[in-house]
Amino acid sequence: MAARGEFSSRMAFVLAASGSAIGLGNIWGFPIKVASNGGGAFVFTYIVLTFLLAYPILMAELVIGRHAKSDTVKSLVKISEGSSKPLAYLTGYWGILTASLILSFYAIVAGWMIAFGLGSAGDLVGASGFSEWLTSFSLERNLLFVCLFYLLTIGIVANGVAAGIEKWSTRLMPMLIILIIALIAYISTQNGAAEGWRVYLTPEFDRVLNPDLLLSALGQAFFSLSLGVGTMMVYGSYISKSENLPRLGATVALMDIGIAFMAGLLVIPAMYVAQANGVTIYNEAGKLIDSDGLIFTVLPALFDTMGGAGIIVSLLFFTLMTIAAVTSSISMLEVPVAHAQESHDLPRKKAAWIVGVMILLVSLIIVFNFGALFGFVIDLTTKYSEPLIGLLFCIFAGWVWRRDALLKELQQGNPTMENTLFWKIWPTYVKVVCPLIVFAVFMHSFELLKI
Ligand code: TRP
User: Fold this and answer.
1) Measured from the CB, is residue 102 less than 6 Å from ligand 1?
2) What pTM did the predictor assign?
3) CA–CA distance, 121 with 123 (Å, rounded to integer)
């Protein structure tokens, strides 16, 4: 392999970047937020924010990454001059820290996916006591499976971008999509599904500007596209100069939104079906009883209605979810590992193990203090850090980086770039409008500004 890895083809990049974007955020996180924020209004706001904000910022990360072809800290430093260098270091390290913290909670949820997958395998062979243990919340189970998940993630990242990341992303994503579509078809035959779809697809527009909803949707838009930590910058650094970046970015964003939307089409009706079958989902105050566990309650309830076949479907579903989680977690670990490798000259394998084990220790702290830390770390990283770092990335793309160099990088791989709408709008948009949107959402959520 050359000094730096590079994706072997356009398809390989699209699959790897979509593999990063598509994960627990789409299938576990998105439905929870929809269900906690009154349905369609959240879906609407999330989609609008993805187009207006997340896609342009994704492009900023990809362009900077491909230009600098380095880890995040070095990339930001490379496009900075003189007085903005300290800000480059600050932003780069803040991103690395955030990526690591995101991995630390993500791996816990991913561990649950493994446990539920094994639980179905246990049901299949009649080991119901074992399955019961695997699918019930306990400290021991969480510890065991978070460690297992790290082994998977570190093992793949240790082997490098081209070898590790591509192999996993290329094959399994299509299977997940097919399974979700099949499950949506199945759920349409169940009592209660129609009510779920009504709630999901009818936005109450007067809720759209609710401060909590808006901040939540902002965080989700960033999280779902893996933005605001440098993941996409690092992946961008592995894209060849002959690729058309805006098109690549758009493909990834559309795939990501598409899968989240489909997951909602499945999970929200599944809640109503479960309710129709006597499972309690909301408490009397109308709040979700167990939001972290939402899909672990309603989907198994759905699989149960399928009789014997349900066990197989469940096994397949949780296996695919585990894989979707791995293709995302490797993209988180890649951020600190690329930095350790390139800025501190550690060999990749060593970097992956040292950094991976350090983040595992953080996960263990969260597992031991689950009630106090789990939700806190999620909010801290996704609602605050990611949008703020995203805002800083816009500042780098729009204000710090020399405009002619930015434009030149955009033109690479697309000789007719100058005729596109993207060329006319994006450079100014990412410089002025994107930071203003993030700023306005924050001001609004802290009730400092009434929109
Ligand atoms: N986007 C992924 C998901 O939806 C999670 C993810 C991967 C991520 N890499 C990231 C989130 C970097 C934030 C930052 O599951």
Assistant:
1) yes
2) 0.94
3) 5
